[in-house]
Amino acid sequence: MNINQGEIWEVEFFPNIGSEIGKKRPALVVSYDKMGKLPLKTVLPITNYSKSFENYPWMIKIEANAMNGLSKTSMIDCFQVRNFSYNRFIKKLGFVEQNILLQAHQTIAKTLDPAYSLVK
Fold it and tell me: Which domain covers residue 21, as residue numbers?
């Protein structure tokens, strides 16, 4: 299976525990393609859009389009970073523009410490 950084895949997040995001949903692959030897990828879950989510600095709004394969306006949740086995990946939906991927990486860094900044 070929899973690459910047792609959006339908991924199985179940089973989840407590407040972890669950169920089958789209996810953005953020890990570097040549990182690690295990068949794992780092992803960010994508959830339904809510106006209230725009107030959360770890959420990124993404509009649906033919390139990303999303069916509706959604939010990328940069707080719930997960590492998953290739077995959880169901099908590729599309991919994001480079600026969205960079924004996701920057937002992940800010969830670790608001003083962090990534420059590319």
Answer: 7-112
Give the alpha-carbon dihedral of 35, 84, 120, 75, to 10 degrees: 170
Write the DSSP symbol of residue 31: S
> How many Cβ atoms sit within 10 Å of the Cβ of residue 56?
13
| Residue entry with tokens 């900044």 | 117
Q: How far is Cα 56 from Cα 9, in angstroms, rounded to an integer? A: 24
In a domain, 118, yes or no: no
pTM of the model: 0.92
pLDDT in tens, 26-84: 999 999 988 877 899 999 999 999 898 889 999 999 999 999 999 999 999 999 999 99
Q: Is residue 27 part of a domain?
A: yes
